[in-house]
Design brief:
The protein is an alpha+beta fold. Helix content is 21%, strand content 50%. The chain has two helices and eleven strands, in the order H-E-E-E-E-E-E-H-E-E-E-E-E. Strands 1-4-5-7-8-9-10-11 form an eight-stranded antiparallel beta barrel. The N terminus is likely disordered.
């Protein structure tokens, strides 16, 4: 009888182990599916602000609003696998003065007709802290592409009125417009363009 019981236990143990392993693997797959998230950029709540010196006596401020789009893919378990792809429509520039907007959109500056988009595509992402990421990527502006590194500050997450998940980041960086072939008005009009971007993504 004892031999039969031992034999029965020996048959059950491998089966129990197989079930436990299957459940464990299932949990891992489910976790990895939840961890990797892709957010679509919401153009209604995303914008880019800019600031540039004007005649040494002040600054010109402006924004691109309503024309920011793209995707943000995040993987908290493997931050280096995260990715960012953004587009900004140059024709959405607004400085609060119609004639100045027309001048900046002209071939002297943005040349919005020939170059309708400013794009950024990440090549690497590094987590610095829970709220701060270093993002390196290719910035294409005025037909010129150059690598830039920016710091993305995580604003947080929230829930929209339809149950959608919202996530926001804020980015600060500076570019020299002359490096992208935009040299008109130098040095009276500043070369350094300070940029602040708020990007809000939506996941349904």
């Amino acid at each position: 009888m004892e031999t039969d019981i031992k034999s029965s236990n020996n048959h059950e143990n491998p089966m129990k182990k197989s079930i436990i392993i299957a459940v464990f693997l299932g949990c891992l797959v489910a976790h990895s599916t939840i961890a990797a998230e892709t957010f679509q950029v919401d153009p209604n709540h995303s914008f880019v602000l800019f600031k540039v010196s004007h005649l040494g006596a002040g600054y010109v401020y402006g924004r691109f609003t309503g024309g920011v789009s793209g995707t943000i893919s995040t993987d908290p378990a493997a931050p280096d696998k995260s990715a960012v792809a953004l587009e900004v429509k140059t024709d959405t520039l607004d400085t609060g003065l119609a004639q100045r907007d027309k001048d900046i959109k002209s071939p002297d500056f943005l040349n919005a007709k020939q170059f309708p988009l400013i794009t950024f595509k990440s090549t690497s992402v590094q987590k610095l802290s829970d709220q701060l990421y270093s993002v390196t990527g290719d910035l294409t502006f005025h037909g010129v592409t150059k690598p830039v590194t920016v710091q993305a500050n995580i604003i947080g997450q929230g829930q929209g009125p339809k149950g959608e998940v919202l996530a926001g980041v804020e980015i600060h960086f500076t570019v020299k417009r002359s490096e992208y072939g935009v040299k008109y008005g130098l040095p009276a009009l500043g070369d350094d363009v300070e940029l602040t971007a708020q990007v809000v993504g939506v996941r349904k």
